[in-house]
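ingest -> fold -> write
write: protein_1
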Amino acid sequence: MTFLTKDQIKETKDYKEAIVKVWGGQIRVRSMSVQDRIDFEARQVEDKKDMPMMISMIIGCCVDEEGSKFFSLEDNSWLLEKSTETLLKLFEACVKLNTLTQDNIESQAKNS
């Protein structure tokens, strides 16, 4: 086995992805980068009243076909009006891809 270079690491696509069928179509869910995770955790402290953890995670993990963010923070208000069942499908995929445990989720919920 050879040692990696920084350039090789930079070029590696190490995200995990899943396709979730919702709303008569499909949405790509991706594992979060470190920066995405920092932003997610900050929203749990800063926006805890206005943005539930489930919505915050969905916003942080859903991407379009090119890998760009699918939802933005401004989508929070109308996402809150969508079906719990549908959003739970997306949330569960986010949790699985980001290897969050029940303890992580409960800890985040306590902080929110």
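write: protein_2
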Amino acid sequence: MPGTEQSGWVKIPFINGFCYLLRGMNYTEALTRMISLGGDTDTTAGIVGGLIGAADGYDTISEHYSKKMLQCDPQLGKTKRPDFLVPKKCDLLAMITKLFNDRPDDSLIIN
């Protein structure tokens, strides 16, 4: 599904994200593909990246991307963000690790 003026609509990145999962795309392939479609790329890439990252695990995300996420400074934008969204003010890696460790095991996934 191509990016359009409505590509920030969550249906588009979710459909694409699940298609990428079914095709076995890795994190980098899926993000590259989603961004190349254009449109609201920060939203669509965030959703697709979250889906692929959650399915495949943090360790499968390349160091190039993980460093960018951990070094991001949302305080540079116009909107003040709460401290838990600012990597420099929280232990983001510990939060990510906890999320992955707390996820259900594969036996709970409906096929």
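write: annotation protein_2
The mean pLDDT is 81.
Residues 41-56 form the longest helix (16 residues).
pipeline exit 0
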